[in-house]
Design goal:
Length: 728
C-alpha cells in the first residue's frame, strides 16, 4: 500500500520567486499563496495552525473555495520561501497566487476528477452487470462460474480503485505521513477494506464479494468531490473575471522621455504612465496630461463615460475610450481599487463564520468517533454474533455511510451561492459571517449626507432671486471648489468668472469688479443675523446693499425612500444619525418618514448610540459612507457602505454597494435571510441522515453498496438545497 501511495503523482511547487509577490505595508509583509490539496475544514485548521506556529506570522487565513492562503508577518520578504517550504512539509504544496493568470490550476484538477469519474463509472456499470448475473443465476450458476465472475470483477475493479481512488488516497496519505487525519482517511479505509475482503472471499472464503460496492462508492464520492470543486470554481469565477480586467502590462514614461513597456506588477507609486485609446488603467492614478473619456462602470456602476482631464482620479480597470492620457500612479497594482474589489469578492466566498465553526468542530470529532464506532461494530458482531466477517462488512458500511461530505458542504455551498448572487446584484460581501449577522438585524441606523442624500447641495428656487443676483454670485462661485459655490455655478450654467477673487477660509469669496465690491459667503462672515432655517444658506452682498439669501438643500437619492420603506416592511426599526445641523437633518428625516433622528453628532456619539441599541437587545445594521462613519460601521452588528464612499468606510463595512444603489441593502437582507434558512435546513438534513443511517449500518441492515448510495445522495441533496438560493 505504501508503494502504491508513494507512486501517486503530486503537485510540485512552482519555480516563481515568491519574494516578487510580497507586498509591504506598515512594516508588515503580505503574501497570497495558492495552496493545493486542501479539501475540508480539517485542512484549513491544520494549514492555519502550521503557519501561526511561526512567531513572526500575525495572520494566516485560507480560503477553501479558491485555495488562497493570505499570510501577514513581521519582517521582510525573504521569509516567503521558508513559508512555502513549511507548507510543503505539512503536506500542502503552494505557489504564489496569481488570479490574473489564465492557467487556472483548478481546471487540471477538474479534468483529473472527470477522468477518474469516467473510469469509476465504466467499472461500476460492468461490475453491476456481472453482479446481477450472479444474483439472478440462482441454482443454475455453478460455483466455478460464480468464481469466474468474481475474478473478472476483480480484474475490473482493482485497477479502477488504484486509479480513481487517487484523489482520496493521495489526500489521506499526505496527512497520515504527518501524523494527522482528515475525512479522506476513513473513505480510503472503507474502499480498501471492501476490496481486501472481496479478494479474500474470491480466493478463500464463501464467494460473497463487494466489488460493486467499492466501485459505486468511488463513483458517487467522485461525483460529490466534482460538485464541490465546481462550486468552488463558481465562487472564484467572479474574482477571476475581475482579475482579468487588470492590465498585464503598462507603458511607463522614463525620465529621458522614452517609453518602455513593463509588467503592470512592476508599476510603483509616482511612476508616469501613458494610456492610449483602448488601454485599461493598470493602477490607481491621477491624470496629469490629456483629455478624453473613460469607461468607469466598474467603479460607479454607471454606463455614462467619465470625463478625463488633468487632476481627475482614475482607478485600475477603467478603460480609456479615446485620446492619449498621461497619468501619475498613486498606488501599485496590489493596492489598487480592482485588486481590493477582487480580495473582497474572494473573502465573501468562504469564511470562518459561526456556522462554519460548528461544522469545523463536528469535522474534528468525526474521524475518532467514526473509527471508534466501526471498531465497536466489529467487536460487537464478533462477540454477540460470533461472525467476524459480518462485523467487518458492517464496519465498512459504517465507515462509508458516516462520511461527513454533507456536513462539510452544508455551509460553504450556501455561502458560495449567496455571495455569487449578491455579486451579480451589485453587492460585494466581505465575509460569510456577514451574511449570518445581516440575516438577524432588526434595527437600521443610517447616515444622512452622502448616504441617504447625494452629498451634493442644489440651489433652491433660483428663479425667485432678484434679477442679476444669480449671475453675480456665479461669477464668484466659478472660481471655487466649495460645494455651495459649485451648486450656484451649476444653477447659473456656463459663463465668465470674476478675476482676482480672494477666498476666505471658513468665510466666503470677495472681489472688486466694475467698481463694485462683491462678497458671497456665510452669514457669520458677513455679519448677518440669520434666522433658523432647515436649509443650508449663503449670502450675496453687492457694495453696501441689501444681502440676498441663497438657500440650498442636499438632494435625496432616488431610491432612498424606497429603501427605507422596504426595510420597514421587513420588520426593521429605522433611526437617522447625522453630524449635520438640526434643520437639514429634520427636513431629510421628514421626507423619509423617519421619526427617530439625532443631529450634530460626533463619531463617538454615533458609536455610543449604536452600543446603546445593542445593549437593549437590538441587532444593528449601520449604513454610512464617510470617514467619520467608519467607527460606527465597525461597531455595528453588520454594516453597509457605498462604492463611492471613503476607502476607510469601505474597509470597515461588511457589504459594499456597487453603483451606489441603496436598494442593494434590501437585496443583501433578503438573500442573507434566505441563506440562513438554507444553512439551517442543510444542518437538519445532514443530522437527520446520520441519525437514521448510522444505527441501521451498525445493526447490519445496510450493505456497503447501499451505504455508498445513501452517503452520496445526502451530499447531492445538501448541494441542491443550497442551489435554491440561485433562483430569483
Amino acid at each position: 500500500m505504501a508503494a502504491l501511495i508513494a507512486a501517486l503523482p503530486g503537485s510540485a511547487a512552482g519555480q516563481a520567486d515568491p519574494q516578487a509577490f510580497v507586498r509591504r505595508s506598515e512594516g508588515r509583509s503580505h503574501l497570497d499563496l495558492l495552496v493545493r490539496g486542501a479539501t475540508c475544514a480539517g485542512c484549513i485548521a491544520r494549514i492555519e495552525a502550521g503557519m501561526l506556529a511561526d512567531d513572526r506570522v500575525e495572520q494566516a487565513r485560507l480560503n477553501l473555495s479558491t485555495g488562497r492562503l493570505a499570510l501577514v508577518w513581521r519582517g521582510d520578504a525573504s521569509a516567503a520561501r521558508g513559508f512555502i517550504t513549511r507548507l510543503g512539509e505539512i503536506g500542502y504544496p503552494a505557489t504564489p497566487y496569481e488570479p490574473e493568470n489564465d492557467s487556472d490550476p483548478q481546471k487540471e484538477d477538474e479534468r483529473r476528477l472527470l477522468r477518474a469519474l469516467a473510469v469509476a463509472g465504466f467499472a461500476m456499470a460492468n461490475v453491476m452487470l456481472l453482479s446481477i448475473s450472479v444474483w439472478s443465476g440462482g441454482l443454475e450458476m455453478t460455483e466455478a462460474m460464480q468464481s469466474l465472475m468474481h475474478r473478472i470483477s476483480a480484474l475490473i475493479v482493482l485497477p479502477t480503485v488504484a486509479y480513481s481512488g487517487q484523489p482520496f488516497f493521495r489526500s489521506a496519505w499526505s496527512v497520515l505521513k504527518h501524523r494527522h487525519v482528515n475525512m479522506d482517511v476513513p473513505i480510503s479505509l472503507a474502499v480498501l477494506l471492501a476490496c481486501g475482503l472481496s479478494i479474500y472471499e474470491t480466493f478463500i472464503g464463501h464467494g460473497e464479494t463487494y466489488y460493486d460496492a467499492a466501485a459505486m462508492l468511488l463513483f458517487f464520492l467522485l461525483i460529490g468531490r466534482f460538485l464541490d470543486m465546481r462550486l468552488r470554481a463558481k465562487a472564484s469565477q467572479a474574482a477571476r473575471g475581475l482579475a482579468a480586467m487588470q492590465a498585464a502590462t503598462a507603458n511607463r514614461l522614463r525620465s529621458d522621455g522614452a517609453m518602455e513597456a513593463i509588467p503592470a506588477r512592476d508599476v510603483c507609486a509616482g511612476d508616469h504612465l501613458i494610456l492610449a485609446a483602448g488601454d485599461r488603467v493598470p493602477v490607481d492614478a491621477v491624470i496629469i496630461e490629456g483629455e478624453g473619456a473613460l469607461d468607469g462602470s466598474l467603479v460607479s456602476g454607471e454606463t455614462a463615460p467619465v470625463e478625463a482631464r488633468p487632476g481627475v482620479q482614475v482607478f485600475s480597470g477603467m478603460l480609456n475610450l479615446d485620446g492619449k492620457l498621461v497619468v501619475r500612479a498613486s498606488a501599485d497594482r496590489d493596492n489598487s481599487l480592482l485588486a481590493e474589489i477582487t480580495r473582497m469578492v474572494e473573502a465573501g466566498e468562504q469564511s470562518r463564520s459561526h456556522f462554519v465553526r460548528l461544522a469545523d468542530q463536528a469535522a474534528r470529532l468525526y474521524v475518532p468517533l467514526v473509527h471508534s464506532l466501526a471498531l465497536a461494530t466489529v467487536i460487537g458482531w464478533a462477540v454477540l454474533g460470533g461472525d467476524l466477517r459480518v462485523g467487518i462488512i458492517n464496519a465498512i458500511a459504517v465507515l462509508i455511510i458516516t462520511c461527513p461530505c454533507a456536513l462539510g458542504l452544508a455551509v460553504p455551498a450556501v455561502h458560495v451561492v449567496a455571495s455569487g448572487r449578491l455579486f451579480k446584484a451589485g453587492v460585494l460581501v466581505k465575509s460569510g459571517d456577514a451574511l449570518e449577522r445581516m440575516a438577524r438585524i432588526d434595527t437600521v441606523v443610517v447616515d444622512k449626507t452622502g448616504t441617504m442624500t447625494e452629498g451634493c447641495p442644489r440651489l433652491l428656487e433660483p428663479e425667485a432671486l432678484p434679477d442679476g443676483m444669480l449671475e453675480l454670485a456665479a461669477r464668484l462661485a466659478r472660481t471655487s471648489h466649495h460645494p455651495l459655490s459649485r451648486a450656484v455655478a451649476d444653477a447659473a450654467g456656463m459663463g465668465p468668472a470674476a478675476r482676482d477673487v480672494r477666498e476666505i477660509a471658513g468665510g466666503g469669496l470677495e472681489c472688486v469688479e466694475d467698481g463694485q465690491r462683491l462678497r458671497f459667503g456665510s452669514a457669520r462672515w458677513l455679519g448677518i443675523e440669520a434666522a433658523s432655517d432647515p436649509h443650508s444658506e449663503a449670502w450675496l452682498i453687492v457694495d453696501e446693499g441689501e444681502p440676498v439669501r441663497f438657500r440650498f438643500q442636499d438632494r435625496l437619492r432616488s431610491d432612498a425612500r424606497e429603501t427605507i420603506d422596504g426595510l420597514r416592511r421587513r420588520g426593521c426599526r429605522i433611526e437617522l444619525l447625522s453630524g449635520d445641523r438640526t434643520g437639514p437633518v429634520a427636513a431629510i428625516a421628514g421626507e423619509l418618514g423617519i421619526e427617530d433622528w439625532t443631529a450634530e453628532l460626533k463619531p463617538q456619539d454615533k458609536i455610543a448610540r449604536i452600543e446603546a441599541l445593542k445593549a437593549d437587545g437590538g441587532r444593528v445594521l449601520m449604513i454610512g459612507d464617510g470617514i467619520n462613519d467608519a467607527p460606527a460601521l465597525a461597531a455595528a452588528d453588520a454594516s453597509v457602505s457605498l462604492a463611492a464612499a471613503a476607502e476607510i468606510s469601505q474597509a470597515a463595512a461588511d457589504f459594499v454597494l456597487q453603483g451606489n444603489k441603496l436598494t442593494g441593502c434590501l437585496v443583501a437582507l433578503d438573500i442573507s435571510r434566505s441563506a440562513r434558512r438554507r444553512v439551517l435546513e442543510n444542518f437538519s438534513l445532514a443530522a437527520g441522515y446520520n441519525m437514521i443511517a448510522v444505527p441501521l449500518a451498525v445493526m447490519g441492515m445496510v450493505t456497503p453498496l447501499i451505504a455508498a448510495i445513501a452517503m452520496s445522495g445526502s451530499s447531492i441533496l445538501v448541494t441542491l438545497n443550497a442551489l435554491r438560493l440561485a433562483r430569483r
